[in-house]
Amino acid sequence: MDNLLLREFNAQMISKGRITFGDVKRLQRNILPDGICARDDVELLLALDRVVGRCDRAWGDYLVAAVTDFVVWGERPTGYVDADAGRWLNGLLLAGEPTRTALRIAREIEQEAHQAETLGSDEALPGAAERIGGADAPRAEALA
Question: Cα-flanking dihedrals φ and ψ of residue 54, to 5°?
Fold first, then answer.
């Protein structure tokens, strides 16, 4: 499903170069009130996360929760991340240099899913929790 409002939101945030607390609330309330409903939405939001440099902490918290909820509980089989979904998600999370938010998403999915195929493999995001460090760790330290 094409989400025109989400595409417009992405374009506005890219143009602005930052995502504020108010932007996150608008996204939750007006654009995705029922959460993420399609893989296309995940792809748009993760692409936005890679290109916008300045983001309120609420952005990362929202994105981690929304993507985790969709991947683990919104797709079938519920509670599991199968090999197909794992490959798709790894491709998104590993595009370019993984952001701190991408690593947090991987860690959260590994913790929440009953089984997350591919996410824990050697070519994926092994030990995401260790790579992230503290929530306030700078990106360079998080990826070390």
Answer: -110, 120
The mean per-residue pLDDT over the stretch 87-104 comes to 91
The one-letter amino acid at 39: R
Report pLDDT digits (tens) over 60-77. Answer: 999 999 999 999 999 988
The residue segments making up the domain with residue 99 are 4-130
- 143 found inside a domain: no
Amino acid identity of residue 112, one-letter, is E
Q: Does the pLDDT at position 117 exceed 90?
A: no
Domain count, the chain: 1
pTM reported for the whole predicted model: 0.81
pLDDT band at residue 97, thresholds of 50, 70 and 90? Answer: confident
Residues 6+ apart with CB under 8 A from 125: 90, 93, 94, 98, 102, 103, 106, 119, 131
Instruction: Indicate whether 136 belongs to any domain.
Output: no
Write the CA distances from 143 to 86, 94, 98, 125, integer angstroms: 20, 12, 8, 11
The Cα–Cα gap between 40 and 11 comes to 15
- Say whether 108 sits in a helix, a strand or coil: helix
Residue 36 within any structural domain of the chain: yes
